[in-house]
Amino acid sequence: MDGVITRGLIYISLIIQVFSSGTFEMAILSIYNGNGRRSDGHCCVGTKESCSDQCRTFVSACLLQHTINVPELPECIFGNSSTAVLGGNVILSQTLNDFEMSTLLIRFQFSWPAVFTLVVDVRHDNDNYLSQNDSSELIIRSIVSETIYPPSYWYTQTTLGENKSIQYTYRVICDDNYYGAGCEVFCRPRNDSFGHYVCDQDGTKLCLPGWNGEFCQTAMCWDRCNMSHGFCYEPFQCSCFIGWEGESCDQCIRNPGCINGYCHEPWQCICNGDWTGKDCNIDINYCHKYDPCEHSGTCLPDNQKNFTCECVTGYTGTSCESVICEDRHCQNGGNCSVSSIGCKCPDKYYGPHCEFRKLTCDETDCMNGGTCIPTLTGTMCNCTKGFTGDNCKSEIDECNSSPCKYGGICKDGVDGYICDCRDGYTGNNCDIIMDPCMGTTCFHNGTCVASSSVFSGSCLCSQGYTGHRCEIVIESVYRY
């Protein structure tokens, strides 16, 4: 009854721990059966006294829970495996044609228990069915009770009998992507939408550079990325939420159409000092800056369109640019026949409302030789050279432009000027510099210097010479 309960608990344990996966591996190194006999002493082939042929040898492995007393036909709780017929009475691993022939694999999908018992039976295949239930065909049995943890090295076991032996190795390894003492830790490296990591020797996930989180699914953004306004799909990026922009997602996006404004939060349009309106496109000081109203109109601030002109009587339009053509607005006998043309004035008057009288040349006094010329609005004076103004009464002062250079004094004349130049300068505008040493040659390495009092040059002679041009040699008399 206790055995039934124990087996039941083991089965339950296996069911609960199905997320483990590994393999118990066993490799046969050698089998020796010198007389070709079974464990009961009888020949595999022939009579008890005379063996007529070699045994047809194969091996089975049974993996079960740790036990001291192994029954004749054990129940392989952890799994079992067997080979095909490997050969006769002497079998060496190097003589086998296929390495897989001598290797037994017992797969498990439960948490490896560490403590186990391994029963290895070398048998004779008497019926060509590789039967493992006939104890009479047993050649030699090897039993190992051990504690090992995956991944393990190869352990070697040698079992001796009467003129018989078997030697084999075994180990426990976890399947790919399984780790831990029981192969119960699953970790498969990946780099996709489900995770970005590799696995260490214990199956612990190690995030790839730029990722963190339990499954390394969270991208690490730039340190300067404002995480209140942005995020990142890929490492070291900064993708902005709607309404934010900039490398660090720290700049709000203004309301579309906002011209002279800024924002603290997305879609705002907070106007700069001199602007107003929904889009901050209305200049508060427009009237003062541009004085847009014509014909004495009064400019008034307008929060909808920068300004509104309040026009005087007789004018209309955005800037009071248009004349209202009504007879009552026409002066000095003017009249209006078409509303969009304006006042039609008598010959002697002009202006939008005929408010200005035309002068004739008889009434115009052109001075300083100016000539009167009739125009559409009256007369004008064509002035002679050197004069300007409405009546040519003002003489043009040519010295206003300061034409004389290098300290020259300008004297105005009619239609011209004269420059009185300082010493050393000449030309109409005193812009030509004269060199007082020009044309002066000093001999014997003499040097010409300009006089500070008069505009002239003189020679400064080297030692031993004199004269106006240093042309005279001074004779020296030495007495001893």
TrEMBL record:
It is a single-pass type I membrane protein. SUPFAM superfamilies: EGF/Laminin. Residues 283-321, 322-355, 357-393, 395-431, 433-471 form the EGF-like domain. GO terms for biological process: cell development; epithelial cell differentiation; neuron differentiation; Notch signaling pathway; tube morphogenesis. One of its GO terms (cellular component) is membrane. InterPro entries: DSL, EGF, EGF-like_Ca-bd_dom, EGF-type_Asp/Asn_hydroxyl_site, EGF_Ca-bd_CS, Notch_ligand_N, Notch_signaling. Residues 172-216 form the DSL domain. GO terms for molecular function: calcium ion binding; Notch binding. SMART domains: DSL, EGF, EGF_CA. Its main location: membrane. It comes from the Eukaryota. Pfam families: DSL (PF01414), EGF (PF00008), MNNL (PF07657). It is found in: Membrane. Keywords: Developmental protein, Disulfide bond, EGF-like domain, Glycoprotein, Membrane, Repeat, Signal, Transmembrane, Transmembrane helix. CDD domains: EGF_CA (cd00054). Disulfide bonds join 174-183, 187-199, 207-216, 311-320, 345-354, 383-392, 421-430, 442-459, 461-470. The chain crosses the membrane at residues 9-32. Putative Notch ligand involved in the mediation of Notch signaling. PANTHER family: NOTCH LIGAND FAMILY MEMBER (PTHR24044), PROTEIN DELTA HOMOLOG 2 (PTHR24044:SF423). This is Delta-like protein. The lineage of its organism: Eukaryota, Metazoa, Spiralia, Lophotrochozoa, Mollusca.
